[in-house]
Amino acid sequence: MAIRDENRHLDVKQEINYRMSDLIDRYWTQYGSKKASADREKSIVEGIRAELGRMFVREVDGVAVQRWYENLTGKRGLADNTAQRHFNVMHHLMKKASTIWSRETGLDQNPADMVEVRRLDDARERFLSEDELFRLKRALDERMLRKGTKDINQTNLRMRLIVLIALSTGMRSTEIHRLQWSDVMYNQGLIAVRTKLKGGKVRYVPMSSELAEEIRRYPTVMGQERIFPPKGGPKSKRQRLEGSFEGLLKRAHIRDFRFHDLRHTFASWYMMNGGDLYELAKLLGHANIKMTERYAKLGKAHISKTGDTAKLIWTLLEKKPVQHAGQPEKKTAHTA
Q: Count of domains in the chain?
């Protein structure tokens, strides 16, 4: 009756009868198409459209989202990590539907918040040991030149610097790929990270002298702002390291390891070297300290150790490992 008295009753039907297909179109135009992962996200939103597109947005409750999520690994047979990425898109979509577009959709809360999803990457505690750090660095140095020549292997050179940045700073893969030369602050010993932050804010991560020297030596191209431009050309938005990174791990004899674990390695050694949990949260760009708390136990176990984490990691990279019985020593020439 209040709605009728205020002459708002004519708008009710328009406000609540908003279909998911229309929501997806709006989301894609204003958000999805502008993301660095737009190529991959396009197939995700179309998958949501295929299953839920005909429903009104107000009908998509927690049960509907849960059913959709379970079908990803059930009927569709997607891997857990892939299903997690699909869910992240759904969560962002429904967040917009329940906040800035709530008047049109009829939602006042995000139904995806009712679904519990295990964050696989964040649940892992895999990080490199001292011996593995040395083997990784040795494997990186071995492929600096093309086999049988003195020519620089550009593919491995690119991967080498990306890996060293991830290991020395804890930056995410997407953050590294979008770095610009202007983000490298040699005088301050810092790297500006401009992605994954709301409101255009910038966070800074420390840059050790060793890492600064590696970046200085990396070849530049005139007029090129990004340090690691997309391999497919200016219009390409996909950045992948899977193939070459897997080959690197095989050469280094490192198992059960993913690129994201380089971030865990930095965070773990930071805490084991006497780091502060709240400072680590800032370095990693965690919005919630709870995401960082899983590293706290490492800090307690190694609280007596102090120093610069990045320098320690570089020391371990160059350290000769303990030779095991029956294992021949591999002699390689280090190339700067």
A: 2
Task: Identify whether residues 261 and 245 lie together within a single domain.
Answer: yes
Q: What is the mean pLDDT of the segment spanning 20-34?
A: 94
- For residues 249 and 132, give the distance between their C-alpha atoms in angstroms, rounded to a whole number: 10
Nearest CA to 166 out of 96, 231, 236, 248 is that of: 248
Write out pLDDT tens, residues 224-281: 899 998 765 544 444 556 568 888 999 999 998 989 899 999 999 998 888 888 899 8
The answer, yes or no, to whether residue 306 has pLDDT greater than 80, is: no
Phi, psi of 161 (to 5 degrees): -70, -40
Q: Within 13 A of 231's CA, how many CA atoms are on the CB side?
A: 8
Residues 40, 29: Cα–Cα separation, whole Å: 15
The span from the CA of 53 to the CA of 55, in Å, is: 6
SS (H, E, C) 185-211: ECCCCEEEECCCCHHHCCEEEECCHHH
Q: Which of 23, 27, 112, 98 lies closest to 66, judged by CA?
A: 112
> Three-state SS for 19?
strand
User: Domain of 165: which CATH number?
Assistant: 1.10.443.10
* Alpha carbons 18 and 82: distance in angstroms, whole number: 28
19 with 158, same domain: the answer is no
Instruction: Give 149 or 34, the one with higher predicted confidence.
Output: 34
